[in-house]
Amino acid sequence: MYKAIIFDLDNTLLDYDRCESDSLLMTGGRHGFEQWERFTWEAFRATFDPINWTYWSERVVRKLTIHQVLEYSFRDTLEKLERDKGEAEALARTYWEHFCAICHFEEGAPELLADLHGSRKLAVVSNGIGEAQRRRTASGGIDHLFDAFVVSDEVGLWKPDRTIFEVALRELGLDRSEVLFVGDSLQDDYAGARNAGIDFCFYNRKRVTLDRGYEPDYVIERIGDIRGVLSGER
């Protein structure tokens, strides 16, 4: 039925949470975090995570680069933890170096892509950063599998704006009725697919209960279960 499957990337094909955690651990290891007096990763993450999320969420409005997002996140975290904030720029560079090199997959994702490749077109529509998304998929050996690869900072469009999906449709040479979009975010992916008039499969990796008003065309709890959707099962 579908001539192409468009995937979100982070926490759909790639395990973003694990990639981020490992990048922070390696950054801390290189910069000697664990030698700090009374240091714990729990305390660091409890401080860093909300600061980082705020800068990331505001990056478009404030016109921040990813390197500024990271530098300011480390700077504010170090300041709150009463550490030397002058190290923030170096920490940001180290983190980005590690993050762009790491590719942890969602369980079953590489096998699914290998199975689908050749039988229908494959694409990515991501709200991430182009440098990271391209380097990570290359590191994981899956970059060559995609017929379209659309990343928000490269095209200046962000989900749930329908226009970013129209870019992918043009690159695929297909109509919206011929594609299925798979993603894990109700805010960005579900809403984006609805705005674009594209069928949506919700990858419910956290097994959340859907509130009223959310009616994806399909729901799966393992990414490999997309095979059942494509064979006509729900």
UniProtKB/TrEMBL annotation:
SUPFAM superfamilies: HAD-like
Protein name: Haloacid dehalogenase
InterPro entries: HAD-like_sf, HAD-SF_hydro_IA, HAD_sf, PGP-like_dom2, Pyrimidine_5'-ntase_YjjG
Pfam families reported for this sequence: Hydrolase
Gene3D superfamilies: HAD superfamily/HAD-like, Putative phosphatase, domain 2
